[in-house]
Amino acid sequence: MAFFQVEKRTSNKTGAVTYKCSIRVKSKGKILYSEYRNFSKAQAANAWGRARIAEIELNGIPSQQDELPTLQGLIKFCFEDNNINTTIGRSKRYGLSLISDCNIAKLPIDQLKTKHIIEHCKLRRASGTGASTVATDISFIRWVFKTAKVNFSHEINDSCITEAYDILYSQNLISKSEKRSRRPIELEKLKVGLAERQAQRASGDIPYVEMLDFSILSCMRIGEVCKITWEDLDEENKAVIVRDRKDPRKKSGNHMLVPLIGGAFELVMKQPRKDERIFPYNSRSVTPGFQRVRAKLGIEDLRYHDLRREGASRLFEKGYAIDEVAQVTGHRAMALT
């Protein structure tokens, strides 16, 4: 007898509600087959349960010896599952797509061995990829394993990854991300390049240099810079409300009043009031321009996010206290910068 059951679950950490749909096939009190998936809505869980039961009744109990999907297949499943797909950021999506085209992704997951992980890292390093970027590859693969195990009921063992770490570090195939300081010479080169790009384009285009300076001084992410509005600017107290600021504990509604110190307020007041937003530009247009200039200048391993660290360093150098800088960056612990 095949049946399904939907169980409502609430996370103790975040309070998020999910619905676990469990499929079971029993005979004479013995469970012959079981699987489950998690959903964000009860309706979706029930719909999947009904469809899965109908499929089992039509085709019989799935063989426990069915061939497991490849790593490429698991990545595809994650992209196709709306509940998972909506949680994948741009960087992770790009990284997973790249991994999906690599040789390692063609192997069935039950055939992946430590040697395959090491070989993948060697090939990536040989192509000129940095050790910290390769480490991100491995973290993404491990994320796919964990996600597939919970959501798709695949029996996956990530020991091929965990057992490879010591070798990968010892051979400098992977490394932890370096907290590089973007000091004046490198940033001045970048500003000159951005100014040249700005001058070559039609008037009214993105003011790259001022946005770079503001990003550093305000310690805001580029998405936050492009969202702040004149209405949320407190000119008297030199502060601005940053709405839905990124917080691992809270996906939305995390509005923060951020002080504009160290010259950030003066930069805001220089902007023309031609839109409800102070910097009325698409962040997805700003970042590629920044990346093209960075690549042209040969500045390696520099992300827009690194400007937040530079900004925090400058505020400390100007004598601001830890709690003042934490208010600007939005971090409860300054170690996060």
From TrEMBL:
This is Site-specific integrase. GO terms for biological process: DNA integration; DNA recombination. Residues 177-337 form the Tyr recombinase domain. It comes from Parashewanella spongiae. Signal peptide: none annotated. The keyword Aminoacyl-tRNA synthetase does not apply. Keywords: DNA integration, DNA recombination. One of its GO terms (molecular function) is DNA binding. It comes from the Bacteria.
